[in-house]
Amino acid sequence: MGEEGRFIQQALDGNIEAWGEIVRRYKGAVYGIALGIVGNSADAEDAAQDAFIRAYENLRRYDMERKFSTWIFTITANLCKNMLRRNKFQTRLDDSVQYEGHAEDPEAIIARDERHELVQDALAALDEKYRSPMVLRFYGELDYLEIAQILDLPEGTVKTRIHRAKEALKSWMVERGVKGNA
Amino acid sequence: MRNEMRDEIFDEEVAKFIKDGISRAVEIDGARLDRIEKNVLEHLQKRTQRKGIFSWLRLPALPTLPSMRPAWALAAAIAIFLIGFLSGVVVQNTGTLAFNTSGQGVLFVMAYPEAKEVQLAGDFTKWDPVSLTRDSRGMWSTKLDLAPGRHEYVFIVDGMRMVVDPRAQEYVKSYDHLNSVIFVS
After folding, report:
1. Are A19 and B41 within 8 A, CB to CB?
2. Who contacts A26 (Cβ-Cβ below 8 Å, separation ≥6)?
3. With the C-alpha atoms ordered A174, A176, A177, A178, is the resulting torsion angle positive or negative?
4. What CA–CA distance (Å, rounded) separates B147 from A55?
5. Is the ipTM of this complex over 0.90?
6. What CATH number does residue A164 fall under?
7. pLDDT tens digits for chain B (185 residues)?
8. Is B37 in the A-facing interface, judged by CB distances under 8 Å?
9. What is the pTM of this model?
10. What is the CATH number of domain B69-184?
11. Chain A: residue nearest B10 by CA?
């Protein structure tokens, strides 16, 4: 059993400090995935926090033979999905809020030169069903099979969605003059 | 022209764009990451303090309950409430009661003629279950001295089921079940 496995075993025995070590190791990845999917820092923080609490509470369901990252990312992705659904519902309820789509001046976008903000804008342009696989693939660096397990989708569907999302993002990047290696 | 530019952006660039962008955002949000760690550990510490009832109930299954979508969780909460409420209404005078008897303590009453045992656990018992006494009609009761203020509690039927008080003043979600709330003046 590796070091991570030992921390998980200790957490199963009720050692919260051991769970703290797991949180320290995964908080960046979990927060990053949540941020990529939900699109704003406050909700991503809530989702990440909730993911670690739920993971601890459900730790007995974790199969030690499988990768822990896959398991914690599954919990994170599901929480984010629920959060988006809830936010969408709340937005619909709030008639006073009006959103207007307008094209931003490409030069103004480049002038911001904030890669992290650009990514959030780019991902926000995608539907959630494309966004989650993209974030897991390119930020989480997971393979198609792992993503399929996390999102509970056939592997072929994951591949198709990533392919389509990549094409959409390429168009988005060209329209705004963004280069990936800039 | 646009298509040519588009083709120049290879898959690797999209990958790098996402990886770098999110990594940078995570880096900037370092304070949030620290807060996540702090809040998670604080929450779990508090939970451990309240663990008395869970360990007593020997419910290792509790942490393994499947997580529910919010809509289902709400539906489940309403169902639990309705079951408790109806049991109090359908059987005359056998609903759950908890009221302050003006300085003489708070009387908790629970109707469960078919139960073999009914207990009460709350913050005022440090979440250790206290047995209720059964009368000939199957009414279970106990009187406790409670400090003024807000208190959370649950009834436990036959050591297995946690039951809400349909006449409680409030309900709060606590992990995967509902606690009843009473305000003592």
Report:
1. yes
2. A52, A68, A69, A72
3. negative
4. 36
5. no
6. 1.10.10.10
7. 555 555 556 778 888 889 999 998 899 889 999 999 999 999 888 877 655 444 444 443 333 334 445 566 566 556 555 554 444 333 333 445 555 445 567 888 888 888 888 999 888 888 888 999 998 888 888 888 888 888 888 888 887 778 888 777 777 776 667 788 888 87
8. yes
9. 0.59
10. 2.60.40.10
11. A170
